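Training component of the fellowship. As part of building independent skills, the fellow (R.M.) carried out the full modelling exercise for a liganded target. The chosen ligand was adenosine-5'-diphosphate. The inputs are recorded below so that the supervisory panel can assess the work.
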Amino acid sequence: SSNTPPRTAGAALAGLGVPTNGTPAPSYTSSPDTRNGAAVPGTENTDEMSKEEKVLKSLVGVDENIAKTIMNEIVVKGDPVQWEDIAGLEAAKRALKETVIYPFLRPDLFSGLREPARGMLLFGPPGTGKTMLARAVATQAKSTFFSISASSLTSKYLGESEKLVRALFTVAKAMSPSIIFVDEIDSLMSARKGEGEHESSRRLKTEFLIQWSSLASAAAGNENDEEQPRVLVLAATNLPWDIDEAARRRFVRRQYIPLPEPETRMEQLNHLLRRQKHGLTPEQIAELVELTDGYSGSDITALAKDAAMGPLRSLGEDLLITPRDQIRPMSFDDFKMSLSTVRPSVSKEGLKEFEKWDKEFGSR
Ligand code: ADP
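Fellow's submitted model of the complex:
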């Protein structure tokens, strides 16, 4: 069903006795069985068992602490995101289905000429839903979802980062089907800055590209496509022009995630207001749609949150004694007030840059 959460590597590895730092697994895998080294639920049949054996085998050589880091910090836990949670972006949803989800769910149909892409890039202004899309894909593709921000690779894990990247791909292959989501990919794949480029970040980038290539060559060397580990690198960036050419070419699909169209803003506003007491008429909502031209999805969320504070702000100190049912509904005026404080985070000129890059390099 579409509500099935992505499997997590944590569950399977816990089942293998790989230490997971005592951090509880996400709720849907937190059966006590999985942490006692017993079978993971749903893995009783032999097919699944051999997958676990594969995991165990390929983890030889992976540093225990690094495996722990991957399980605890990189495998995504938490609420699955559904398509319906994401307003608009129909073209992007369609592209993700075709490029990622169908190949993951029907590997038998996607071989030979239809061999699936190993890389897809989502680019566009910040706060437009790229991360949400990636999480929805993980939910729909019933895959293990690894998520890492490239800037944390270069800062937080510096020193360990090459090892981490190697281990990440190893675990992802073992836990196939897997999606490796890399946010802020620009900071990992930036065009070589010649002398100025740090040796360590150059090495990290090279390691990432080598690991990424190994996915494709593994596929080419095996007759039986269905046996192949299915691992896709899904990446997001607000700075697509910073990605160097070699890396750009590997993202076979480059999908523009634009600012929301009027219909999308309408959908999002209605979605945000659906469980809120409010007195906005359909005409006023339509006017809000006009007024939020240039706002990103996250700007609109911020706007609605700020406007929702309006009824409380107008109470002043009475807030502390007013019963809940006597709080006035949100009004159009609350939104108008908030529009002056919550401003769009992308400028018109900034937007032009994205459109230009999309024309030149985007997938259609
Ligand atoms: P990005 O990765 O593009 O920077 P996110 O996916 O992290 O943006 O979105 C940030 C927040 O903005 C989300 O948590 C959500 O509240 C809101 N948002 C952005 N785009 C949308 C959308 N299309 N539909 C619904 N909410 C959105």
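The panel noted the following from the submitted structure. Strands lie at 119-123, 144-149, 178-183, 231-237, 253-256. The pocket of adenosine-5'-diphosphate is lined by residues 86-89, 126-132, 236, 268, 297-298, 301 (CB under 6 Å).
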